[in-house]
Design goal:
alpha+beta; Jelly Rolls; three-stranded antiparallel β-sheet; 8 helices; 21% strand
Length: 192
């Protein structure tokens, strides 16, 4: 499965075989069952997690017990609680596999060691963090500026493979709307 990551990183940066060997040696392959959580609220997130196959969601509960999906992670993406990872503090989030999935992970300690010894990985990591920041900005703008219908269409464009396979309550949660509103938007989209 490491070849999935190898292909992915080679599309992003020029990297030597020596660096790839170090990165491979420091990695751990994890098979995750459908509905299995890899992070629970209150735990400290201390790994970097590349999704080789499958799908995850990052979510949290509000004071009334409603869950709110902050992010989905699909094949060739990363899933993380960046705040818990950076500050090594208990997470406010949960991460669960929506389908049987495979992830390649590195401990925080190993990743930092690799960043020191692999300049190409360091460059890649900087690009990754910049893209994550840009994605967060777009998501915030979408939530405060787009209509529910526009957010729905944007999700359909960004996640075409995921669009019809996730439960509606998770999609509604991600879009920041009720299931009833989502049903109305879907009906309107079909009738167009």
């Amino acid at each position: 499965m490491f070849e999935v990551f190898e292909k992915y990183i080679k599309q992003k940066v020029t990297i030597s075989e020596e660096e790839l060997d170090k990165i491979r040696a420091g990695s751990i392959l994890r098979k995750i069952r459908k509905n299995q959580s890899i992070l629970h609220e209150g735990e400290i997130w201390s790994i970097n997690c590349f999704i080789a196959s499958g799908c995850f969601r990052l979510y949290r509960f509000d004071k009334d017990g409603n869950d709110h999906t902050a992010r989905f992670g699909i094949e060739n993406w990363w899933i993380t609680d960046q705040e818990s990872y950076n500050h090594q503090k208990p997470s406010e989030y949960n991460i669960e596999a929506l389908v049987a999935s495979t992830a390649i992970v590195w401990t925080k300690e190993k990743w930092e060691e690799l960043l020191e010894s692999c300049p190409s990985l360091r460059k890649f990591n900087e690009q990754l963090l910049a893209r994550a920041y840009e994605t967060s900005q777009r998501r915030i703008f979408s939530l405060i500026s787009y209509t529910a219908s526009e957010r729905y269409l944007e999700f359909q464009k960004i996640y075409p493979d995921l669009f019809n396979s996730i439960p509606l309550h998770m999609l509604a949660s991600y879009l920041g709307i009720s299931r009833e509103t989502l049903s109305r938007i879907r009906r309107e989209a079909v009738n167009r």
